[in-house]
Amino acid sequence: MASQPKAGFTPEQYLKIERTSERKSEYLNGEIFAMGGASPRHVLIVTNIVRELSSQLKDRPCSVFSTDLRLRVSPEGLYTYPDVVVLCGPPQFSDSRRDTLTNPTLIVEVLSKSTKDYDRGEKFEQYRTIESFKEYLLIAQDRPHVEHHVRQAGNTWLLSETSKPDDTVFLTAIACQLQLKEVYEKTDQLQPE
Predict the structure, then answer these.
(1) What are the residue ranges of helices labelled H in the chain?
(2) Nearest Cα to 70, choosing from 101, 110, 105?
(3) N or C end of the chain: smaller count of CB under 10 Å?
(4) pTM of the model
(5) Which of 58, 61, 64, 94 is nearest to 79 (CA)?
(6) What are the backbone angles phi and psi of residue 150, rounded to the nearest 5°?
(7) Residue 97 burial by Cβ neighbours in a 10 Å radius (0-12, 13-18, 19+)
(8) In whole angstroms, what is the distance from residue 9 CA to residue 28 CA?
(9) Residue 3: its pLDDT value, please?
């Protein structure tokens, strides 16, 4: 989450402002937070993930979106821009503008120093309220490390982690896999955040 919140807004006010703004902002419980820019390493990791998942899903009824598609978690709670969203099946949008998705299957967040606690904590807590949401990947930016959360029966979540560059993360909800070496391809050429 970015800094300097502006408080006291309704979701409707936020969307009106957001749809005409040149910069992206997130909304959480009446507050609007301006989003900061991403580092080159962050952008490259997102690009690598989108490339790998898009390739595996190209002949299936799933779509991969990155960074610019807004997600509404709840009508009054959280509006955000995940780094990567995979949607399987027909998209559902919050209104006729069709610019705010409501039914993600998989969400990926690339962690930064300023957002890692929020992405693991309150944001994940909010995401878990989405019925269609089945898997969550948290990707470290400064080193090879992936946290993989999978929804289980009874609405519990199972966490697995890996830091081995030769490991593969199996994404059961979308029947795909991500090799860490592909996720972090060429990142050694860039400085961590």
Answers:
(1) 11-18, 40-57, 116-120, 122-127, 180-183
(2) 101
(3) C
(4) 0.93
(5) 94
(6) -125, 130
(7) exposed
(8) 10
(9) 52
* Residues of the chain under the 50 pLDDT cut: none
Q: What's at 48, amino acid-wise?
A: N
**Which residues in the chain belong to E strands, given as ranges?**
25-28, 31-34, 62-66, 70-72, 78-80, 84-88, 100-101, 106-110, 135-139, 146-151, 157-162, 168-171, 176-179
Q: Which two three-digit tokens encode residue 153?
A: 């029966």
Structural contact between residues 181 and 188, judged by C-beta atoms closer than 8 angstroms: no
C-beta separation of 186 from 44 below 8 A:
yes
The dihedral formed by the CA atoms of 43, 164, 88 and 18, expressed in degrees to the nearest 10: -30
pLDDT value at position 117?
Answer: 95
Tokens for 8, please give them.
Answer: 């006291």
Separation of alpha carbons 89 and 44, rounded Å: 27
130 C-beta neighbours (distance < 10 Å), count: 18
141, 192 contact by CB (below 8 A): yes
Domains of the chain: 38-189 (3.90.1570.10)
At 72-87, the pLDDT tens digits run 998 888 999 999 999 9
Q: Count the neighbouring beta carbons within 10 Å of the beta carbon of residue 167.
A: 14
CB of 72 closer than 8 Å to CB of 94: yes
Length reported for the chain: 193
Q: First-to-last CA distance in the chain?
A: 15
